[in-house]
Amino acid sequence: MDTAGALRAEVGAGLGEGAGTMLLVLGDYWQPDRDERTEIGELVRRAKDQGDPGAASELAGRFASLATALPEAADGLPRLVVPVPAGDGDRPDLAAKLASSLAAAGVGEYRPSLVVKGNPTPRMRHLEPERRAEVAASAGYRVREPVAGRQIVVVDDVVLTGTTLDAVAACLHDAGAASVTAAAAARTRRR
Questions:
Q1: Global pTM?
Q2: For the chain, which has fewer Cβ within 10 Å, the N-terminal or C-terminal residue?
């Protein structure tokens, strides 16, 4: 849902080379006209930065509503729901919790280890947008099981430029995925 409370589906919006990839966003992180978090932004902050399990659970419950925005699986096989591989911090993995809630809402099979990250990287939010593609490429994302012909939903907690989602989607497409849809709890902007 956006700041007005309506789910947004954007095609290729800010997903770099992944133009044409649908991005489902639960809401904005910041108020559009000021540096104040939205309700979704505050839940993400509490869950991700403070490790608040109550905020993570509330956000996951709301995130499950994205299930209604996805078209039916075209091939009769269940979609695979994949979190972006965890960062290198010691906080609970919010993307995994969100992906699990989406799978539990009937979107598809939850596959937390389908895509793995070969190399540690800094948190993207600490990098200038111009450096993010280089850092995402250095992460060494790889697919650990066959995905040829499958429809995949990749879940991240927050999206700014879409660089991480784009890198994971490219990895899945290179492995033969039929389609990749991206979903995030919040879309943020440079402050």
A1: 0.87
A2: C
